[in-house]
Amino acid sequence: MPIASLDQLLKHASQNKYAVGAFVSMNIEVVQAAIAAAEKMNSPVVIRIHPDVRATTRFDTMCLVARHLAAEASVPVGISLDHGETLADCVDAIRAGATSVMLDAAEEPLEENIRRVAEVVNVAAPLGVLVEAAVGHMEHGAVQTDDDLADVAEAVRLVKESGATILAPAIGNVHGSAHGEEKATPNLNIARIRALREATGVPICMHGGSGTPRPMMRAATEAGVALVILFSDIITAYNSAMITVYNANSPGIAIIDALIPAQAAAQAVIEEKMVDLNSAGQADAFRAWARA
């Protein structure tokens, strides 16, 4: 299939009370694991690419791989930018084929957050690309206090005044251990999710989905979460498999001997997440809905 529109993916997810998993992919093996898992589980999937990937691989190279694999897949595959910090990050992703981009200015004052997101919307909206904006405070690894949670009135202003089409709020979710932090257990505020969804009218994107118990995840999708960003659980399984192989062999081992089990470990975890999100089995329904 060609790359799927995030607009369509999130509309179908919202209508059918599931969430699409967006798996942060910093190398080709995780991209392959995510799409293979989606094929096996008959699930829509989003390849989420962080700007940091450009330290080793051009953004358009990663997107080219995702587009090639998506074209051969029987399930819908979307491409999305994670935590863009600048307009240039977002333009880079759009040129590479992303159908949604995030401009993360949540730690800025609200007016500056609105201004920066609107700047991206002005570029992205005419191209049919969705723009994700963030609100609230999500420190890596830390438990959120009530003061950290997204304020509904501020979220409404952010969406209305910037033109953002996806909202990534602080809702009791916990950003993961990508920077070495020990991740706290999420404690999602389901009532706040519901209030944000109803007040803003846009799909809710939950960051830091790793470690969320299945009943809590299902409650979140019922309340309005339609996109979930996942990284820590997948990369932990991936890295653990690689470490096992490296520890059992000499430094001269062929890297493919470590990459094969690492990709398989990542795929197994992604398959479990698709069950948690209730997206498993939804690809056929999405295709029928999109054709109607």
**What's the number of extended β-strand segments?**
8
CATH architecture: Alpha-Beta Barrel
Number of helices: 11
Largest beta sheet, briefly? 5 strands, parallel
- Please trace the helix and strand order, writing H or E for each element: HEHEHEHEHEHEHEHEHHH
Strands in their spatial order, largest beta sheet = 3-2-1-8-7
The end-to-end distance, rounded to whole angstroms, is: 17 Å
Q: What's the pLDDT, averaged over the residues?
A: 94
In CATH, the topology is named TIM Barrel
Low-pLDDT sequence parts: none
Categorize the overall geometry: globular
Determine Rg (CA atoms, Å). Answer: 18 Å
Given the helix and strand composition, which structural class is it? alpha/beta
CATH superfamily: Aldolase class I
How would you sum up this structure in a few lines?
The chain is 48% helix and 13% strand. The protein is of the alpha/beta class.
Features of the shown structure:
292 residues, alpha/beta, TIM Barrel, five-stranded parallel sheet, three-stranded parallel sheet, globular
Question: Can you walk me through this structure?
Answer:
The strands form two sheets. A five-stranded parallel β-sheet has the order 3-2-1-8-7. Strands 4-5-6 form a three-stranded parallel β-sheet. The protein has 292 residues and is of the alpha/beta class. The protein starts with 5 loop residues before the first helix and ends with a helix. It has a single domain, classed as TIM Barrel.
